[in-house]
Amino acid sequence: MNIQSDQQLKSSQMDLDLPHTTTSTSTMVNDQLNQTIDVLLGSIQVLNDDTQRLSSETLRTQYLLQYISENLSKLKLAVQETNTSVEGLTPNQQILQQDLDSIKQDIEDKQAVSYDGTLIWRITNV
Fold first, then answer.
1. Could you tell me the end-to-end alpha-carbon distance of the chain, in angstroms, rounded to an integer?
2. N or C: less crowded end of the chain, CB within 10 Å?
3. CB count, 10 Å around CB of 24?
4. Exposed e or buried b per residue across 66-97, where buried means at least 16 C-beta atoms within 10 angstroms of its C-beta
5. pLDDT digit string, tens, across residues 87-96
6. pLDDT digit string, tens, across residues 2-22
């Protein structure tokens, strides 16, 4: 009978230890789950922050793109106006070049005077 009572005593001690072990294991699992949840919440917060940052950068980039597009249109218009002005100046430049060539020819003609010491007088309206 002693053997049987020892077995019953051990069995009842195991029954008492089993809930304690289960509670201890449950606590450990619960702690691990809480840690995992904390890590996930931290990761979600980082992702939310990144999303907000990317949204604001996207908005800023859209404004810059719009600004650049507007300035590009203005620049194209200014280039067209400049080209028109240059085309208008081209005939004037050609006329000025002809006048310059004519003046050069006059100067060359006047320098074609003889330098042998003989003076030639031109008398007009005689």
1. 174
2. C
3. 10
4. eeeeeeeeeeeeeeeeeeeeeeeeeeeeeeee
5. 888 888 999 9
6. 555 556 655 555 454 445 566
